[in-house]
Each structure stands twice: as structure tokens, then as C-alpha cells.
Amino acid sequence: xxxxxxxxxxxxxxxxxxxxxxxxxxxxxxxxxxxxxxxxxxxxxxxxxxxxxxxxxxxxxxxxxxxxxxxxxxxxxxxxxxxxxxxxxxxxxxxxxxxxxxxxxxxxxxxxxxxxxxxxxxxxxxxxxxxxxxxxxxxxxxxxxxxxxxxxxxxxxxxxxxxxxxxxxxxxxxxxxxxxxxxxxxxxxxxxxxxxxxxxxxxxxxxxxxxxxxxxxxxxxxxxxxxxxxxxxxxxxxxxxxxxxxxxx
Length: 249
Ligand code: PGA
Hints:
By secondary structure, the protein is of the alpha/beta class. The chain has one domain (5-65, 75-248): Aldolase class I (TIM Barrel, Alpha-Beta Barrel).
């Protein structure tokens, strides 16, 4: 059975002081979590989060990474810096990066390769917009994104990576995909992985759902056969609600 993994994407929230409050509160609540737990604070809080999470079940990830190793790229953060800070995971291709910073499947694929090359694990995001869903082209969009972002990844990498399906229209909007809508796309992604790799690899692949996951809808979503965890935004900023989602797994 695949282990469920719950990741919290803090986005552009929490100062260094807020970070110690939140991680300490989580540590108190998550002594023996029933699922894997990853927190993804902003860059300025990564080193502190790693320090505070040492010896606990909480793992730390970054929200993005540069495709470049070093040099004149003002404002960017390299994979070497993330690794040295003690991160184990990196989110790549979040829809906010796709939308506001025009990231493409090709760039996201290069970022995923970069993350693997340094021995870290990418959380690779895909998802359709509202217009795409309403035009009935969700499967087509997801198929294109999955093929693009996974290009060239080995079966071993595919089995280690985390895929996050996040319908763009459900992120931060309070609208959640119905469990049926979510499960349908998760099954599609698993079928695509089986075709691109093998049924064995597809069986091992961890596919998270993201988009307004809250304590009150987490249980039903996480009970679906192809939903292996959640990528949580808003609800991960509070220790009680994030812990409740982890409990629901
Ligand atoms: P949300 O964000 O839970 O606030 O909808 C999810 C995400 O963007 O990963």
C-alpha cells in the first residue's frame, strides 16, 4: 500500500518568528503522524524549519528552484543552496508559478531533473484551469502536462517523485473538486504513468490532490483509491487545521 503524504505549501506567508511558532506547534501535535508530513516555508525560513524539524517526522521542502546552478540570476535560489539548507523536497510547477511567472511544462521538467540530480525529491504539479474544464478538455490538458513534466525521468525517479494534481479553479477559492472529479483525474494520471512506464511503477507513484483541502473535506478525498495525499495551501498555515488533515489520512 502506498503511504499517504501530506505537504503544506506556505506560499508567501510567515516570517522567521512565525515559522518557529508554527513548527513548534506542529511538533507538539504530530508525535506519531499517520502520514508523511512535509512543510514548504518561504526561502527565508527554510534553514530554521530544518533545524526545528530535526529528529521529528516533519520533512522540509522548498516552493521552487532555479534551473541554473549559480551566477547572475538576481532573486533566484539554486538547488545547491536548498540542499545545503537541509531541504529534502522541492515543489516545481505550482500553478501560481505557471500563471504569474509563465513557467512551461518544459521548464518544470528541467527543474524536476535538477532536483533529482541533487538527490532531492520533486513535488511536480499539474492542473487544468476553469476555462479548460468548462471546455471539456481536462483530460487533454492533464495528458499534455504529465507527458511534458515527466519527459526523460527514469522509472526509479518516477517511483520517488510526488505528483500533485491541483485544479487551478480550486486553489485558494474555497471550491474543491468533488471527490469524483478528483479521483477521475488521479486515475487518468496513474493510467498515463502505467503507459509511459509500467503498471508496477504506476502502482508505486504518489499522487497528491490539492485545491482548498480542509479538515472537513480531507477524509473523503483521501479515502479515494488513487488519492495518495494532499498538497495544502491555506489550511496548512494553522497547526490545528494542518494536523487535522494529517489525521484524516
Ligand atoms: P489551497 O492551495 O489549499 O489554499 O487551495 C493549494 C495549493 O496551492 O497548493
